[in-house]
Sequence to fold (355 residues):
Amino acid sequence: MTVLTDFAGTGVHEAVQDRLDAFFTDRISLAAAYGDNYRLLWEAARSASRGGKMFRPALVVGVYRDLGGSDDDSALRIATAFELLHTAFLLHDDVIDRDLIRRGVPNLAGSFAADATARGATEAAAETWGQASAILAGDLLIQAAQGFLARLSVSAGIRADLLDLFDRSIFVTAAGELADVAFSAGVRLPSLVDVMAMTEQKTASYSFEAPLKAGAILAGADAETLTILGEFGRLVGVAFQLRDDQLGVFGDAQVTGKSVLNDLRNRKETPLIAHARSTPRWAQIEEALEILGTSDSDGTSVRAALEECGARTFVDSLIDDHVARAQSLLDDSGLPATLRGHLRDVARHAVVRAA
Fold:
């Protein structure tokens, strides 16, 4: 990805992957003493960590270097922690959404469920085995990510600030995930404001705000810089998730590696759906969603209705607004010119991507 390579510099993806491989190799070796199932769990977790874009590590390292940092080992350790956290959240998110595919191949829950079925387990038992395995793997990776930060060779103050930042990002993301489940399950009927708040909590905090601020904290940045980076990350993170929601309905499954039906069938509450509910077409859309959930429909009628009621255009306008505000924030800031340029590229790329 050229934008992130230009930002963080060449070799960051490979350096983080090397650290991940070393970590998983160690864990797999230790897990063997506790039985084949536990070893296989760690091997599957390693597979889950591969194939991502690694833009969170790039944000950490890019900000750190643009602010004059030179301790690449510490920056890469923080970057690795964020990638482990991201993998953990994906594992948990797939269980919540009952997805069995990630990046075009069976995810951890899916592969463990398939293995259980092959051994003669019932469908219910295989599902339980797959979901429990994914939950445990995610838990283990969150703990490991925090361990990467706790062992940094930095001052006690910087370490504490980084751990606090990491803790808050997990705290906020969990709030967003809980709200997402409540809305999708019909526990609570959300307004557009509610859905936008959930969108911000679920993605912006750990994917953009925290990585940007982590690189700045390691570089010894002042409070004003941290505030600017945090707000920029919030705005771009929301735009990124809005684009992700669109790809989950209108994207190309061959490119995204995810089904374009699951979000609709699971009645995921996104700004697309929240806006559609406020239009005269909602009764028709709701009926089409009900049919989609119990049939082999390809979702064409739902997507067409979302286009016709203006939901897709409305979300496009939200994306444009958030990116424009992020760009304006950079223009008015005192951030170094190189960093401002890189962040502008990040903002643009976050919303024009196809996957």
About this structure: Residues 211 and 323 are 18 Å apart (CA to CA). Residues 156-184 form the longest helix (29 residues). The chain has a mean pLDDT of 93.
